[in-house]
Structure formats: C-alpha cells, structure tokens
Design goal:
About 35% of the residues lie in helices and about 25% in strands. It is an alpha+beta fold. Helix 1 packs antiparallel against helix 13 and helix 7 crosses helix 8. The longest helix is centred in the C-terminal third of the chain and has 34 residues. It starts with 8 loop residues before the first helix and ends in a 7-residue tail after the last strand.
C-alpha cells in the first residue's frame, strides 16, 4: 500500500486557512445551491446596459494576477481645465439577486479572503473572474460614476448612470506605476490602444489634483508596505514587499472620489448610506508622543491637518523609515467601521481621509458592503423602494464591520503562518523592528527584513506602539501562526537603536 505524499507547506497553509475561516464563522466553500445559481447566470450582460460607452479607451489597473476586475477608468477634458473622470463599476447585483444562495454566501462572508495558498472569493469564479468581472475585450454592464475635477482639485458636477463598457487594456500597478513616475518603459498594452497613453496621463493629473487638495484638508499621507508571500514548489520561498507607486495612488484617488460621489448622490435622493468611517483616534496622546520624540509638536486634541503636516515633513526628512512611522500611526488611529446613516442624522466622517461623505461602492465582486450600496443605488436611480429596512441596514453595518475584523485576523494569521514557514530555519537570529501592538493581550513587533510580525515573549515590559527594538527569534509554529521574539535592545522612534 503506497504512502500518502508528505504534506507541503502549501497544504499546511491551506488547511490552516480553512480551519481559521470556520472558527470565525466564514464559509470556505460555496454550497451546491450557490454554484448551481452561478451556472444559470447567462453569458450576455443583463438588461440594464444604459448608455453605450464601449468605444471609449477604458482600462483596468490592478495587481498583476488579479482577475476579479471591479472597475475601469477613463477621462475627458474641457477647455477651462476641468477634467471629467468616468469610473465604471461592475454590475454585480444583476447576477446576485437578494435572498439567493449566492447572496447568502456573500452576506455570510462579506468579503473575499486573500491567503498565500489561495483566494477564497466572495462570489464563485464563474461570476467574479468572468461574467461580473470587467474582463478585457468583453462587453459588460456597469454603473458609471461621472466626476468633474477643476484645476484646483475640487469636485464639481457629478452623476451616476448605467452603461455598457468594454475593457480595452488590462494593466498592472507594477508596470503603470514606474512608467508614470518616469522610471520605467510604457507598458505594451497601453501603446496598443489609440489615445490611451494621453488619457492615462490626464487621469493621473486629475488624481494628483484630488490628492493634493485632500491633503490640504487633512487627509493623511500614510505609506504602508504590503507583503505577499511567494510559494514555489509547495514551499514558502520569499516574502517580497510591495510599496505604493503612482499607479496605485491614481486608482486610490479615483476610488475615493467615486465613493464620495456615490454617498452624496444617495444623500441627495434622501436615501440611507452605508458609510465607511474612521472615528477620531482614541490614542492621539501616543501619536503626539511619537511626534515629540522626533522633535515635532502636535496639538493636544486630534487635528488631521496638523498630523498630515507632520507626516509630510517626516516623509521628506526620512523616506526610508517613513513606512515604519506610518504603520505606528495606522495602528494608533484605530479600525475603520461601517455605519448606516439616514436622512437628517448627524454624519460621522473618515478621519484619515478628511471626508464626511464616504461609502464603499467600487469593489462589488470582493466586498458585500459594495453590493449593498449598489442595490441602494439601483433603487435610487429607478425611483424604487428601499431594498433594506432601517434595522436590517444597521445590522448589516455591524455584521460587515465584525466580518472585516474576522477576515483581517485570518489573513494576518496566514501571513504569519507563511512567515513562520520561511523563518523556521532562522531560530536565534537577531532583527531590528518596530512595536506594532501593546496591550494586556500582548506586545507585537514587526521586524524590517523580512517584514514579519511576531509576539515579544521576553523583555516586553515598558514597550509601546512605535518603539524601535532589537529582538531575537526564539520560536516559530506555522500551524498556529506563531513567531516569537525576545527583546535584546530598545530605542524609541527617531533615536539610535539599542
């Protein structure tokens, strides 16, 4: 009798991912009913096409391996310097009826779950990577957001309508970013579409104006480093990092403007809005303490404009270490959450973006709050009745917030499990890092090379978020996602390491 092949690290990570999802109440697999519904979705777009905009030079910009394409962008201009941005968002709700098995799975999980061994999509791949994806060279129904941006970056006229669109070029951040920054060649896919090069530069110019004005109003100039574990032949081979670039900023700026526009549109129709908010930070005193250690002063009360001035100054003074400072501020700002707001009620804003009107609407293949918003939007456009009652919408906001917390924990666990696989042969090695969490539950540190987070099990007394430390790796457990360090030295942010 032949033996079963030994478990690979990929197998281990997949098993950990499935177990973690079930422990948090998520469903790793689709039910037979949901898969059957997905198979019955027709290949042709639904009957909500609206305007025919297929001839415009639409393009998508996403990660290299993304297939669940939620949005396309294109721009136009006027002689007075106004740019007109169009953002097409995949029409998902036509294929996912409320109350269906597909909707039930999406409502349970509320988001796609991204783990090193695989993606657990919110919607079956027949939809999310095909029929409801704005895939290249395919006619697709979409919700289109029209945004007018003047020469100063102010948003003027805006609107929302249905349209039929066609993705002319599937582009990636890794290629478009260096090209826009002048450090890389033009991606071949851009050159194959007449007018796309000029159009992308027009989009980029409008995005830069939007970003500049938001920062003047206190939007925070934060910079994070993403780690995407690399697996080869079933083993974790590397933990490459991805930094922000001009293409990511372009899409981020256009999506923020789109989400503001959608929130205001729903408000203008006296519809409720499922808002995305980050409340005033509770640990402002610690943020001010970090600034003081760097020779800067912040007001006693939370002030986004003052905080952004501080961040911009630090980015210019120490760009290499700026992502570490950003990480500390992000941790101390606190989590984002979903809040249902209704006409006539006081609005809670988004501290980090310096906006009060903001929702999530541009990624309905990946996030359930965007599906909810798309249903509200369809009802507003059609003059129909509300798809959700007040209590149901409040409950969904709470559920989506909790699920986001759950998924963040799952994805962090899998990233740590992958890192533990890679580091298992480095016990005893010392690393420099920064404290990312400090509470009664424990103290965590992220080391700089590789970018890995673990728990400080020895010498954690007196550490707080933002402190720099030198630690020694003492233990790893990929099964449980444990990476344990012992502190060997300490220096606050901005001072020499101990």
């Amino acid at each position: 009798m032949s033996k079963a092949p030994p478990e690979t690290q990929r197998d281990l990570l997949l098993r950990v991912a499935r177990r973690a999802m079930r422990e948090h109440g998520l469903e790793p697999d689709f039910s037979p009913e949901a898969l059957a519904e997905a198979e019955r979705v027709p290949d042709a777009p639904g009957g909500e096409e609206g305007k025919d905009l297929r001839d415009l030079p639409w393009c998508s910009i996403d990660n290299d391996d993304s297939r669940d394409l939620d949005q396309l962008t294109v721009a136009d201009s006027r002689s007075d310097g106004t740019s007109i941005l169009y953002v097409a968002v995949a029409n998902v709700i036509g294929a996912v009826p409320s109350g269906s098995a597909l909707d039930g799975h999406a409502r349970t999980n509320t988001t796609s779950v991204y783990t090193p061994p695989r993606v657990f999509p919110m919607l079956p791949e027949r939809l999310s990577t095909d029929l409801t994806s704005l895939a290249p060279d395919q006619d697709r129904a979409a919700m289109v957001i029209e945004i007018h941006v003047d020469a100063e970056g102010r948003i003027g006229d805006s609107g929302v309508f249905r349209a039929l669109v066609r993705n002319r070029a599937k582009l990636a951040y890794s290629g478009v970013g260096p090209w826009l920054e002048g450090s890389g060649p033009i991606p071949p896919a851009i050159g194959r579409v007449p007018g796309l090069e000029a159009n992308l530069r027009m989009q980029d110019g409008a995005a830069q104006r939007l970003r500049s004005l938001r920062h003047e109003h206190g939007a925070l100039a934060l910079e994070s480093i993403e780690v995407r574990p690399q697996l080869d032949d079933g083993r974790v081979s590397a933990l490459p990092t991805e930094r922000p670039n001009r293409a990511k900023e372009l899409i981020e700026d256009l999506m923020i403007a789109s989400n503001e526009t959608i929130a205001r549109f729903l408000e203008s129709r006296r519809f409720p809005v499922l808002r995305r908010v980050v409340r005033t930070p509770k640990r402002w005193a610690r943020i001010a303490e970090i600034a003081k250690d760097l020779g800067e002063a912040l007001p006693d009360q939370p002030d986004p404009v003052a905080l952004n001035r501080f961040l911009e100054k630090r980015r210019a003074a120490d760009p290499v270490r700026f992502p570490d400072l950003s990480l500390s501020v992000i941790k101390l700002l606190g989590r984002g959450e979903y809040v249902a707001s209704f006409p006539g009620e006081e609005i809670t804003g988004h501290f980090g973006l310096a906006v009060s009107d903001y929702t999530h609407s541009t990624a309905p293949n990946r996030r359930y709050p965007d599906v909810i918003t798309q249903r509200l939007l369809r009802a507003a456009l059609d003059g129909g009745t509300l798809p959700y009652g007040r209590d149901e919408l409040i409950g969904l906001a709470d559920h989506c917030t909790q699920r986001e917390d759950d998924v963040n924990k799952i994805e962090r666990l899998l990233d740590k499990a992958a890192a533990a696989c890679l580091l298992s042969s480095h016990i005893g090695q010392e690393f420099d890092g920064i404290v990312t969490g400090a509470s009664e539950k424990g103290t965590w540190v992220r080391v700089f090379d590789p970018h890995v987070e673990g728990r400080v099990e020895q010498g954690q007394e007196g550490l707080d978020v933002g402190d720099r430390v030198r630690v020694r790796l003492v233990h790893t457990d990929p099964e449980r996602g444990f990476i344990d360090f012992a502190r060997t030295g300490h220096a606050p942010v901005g001072r020499p390491r101990g």
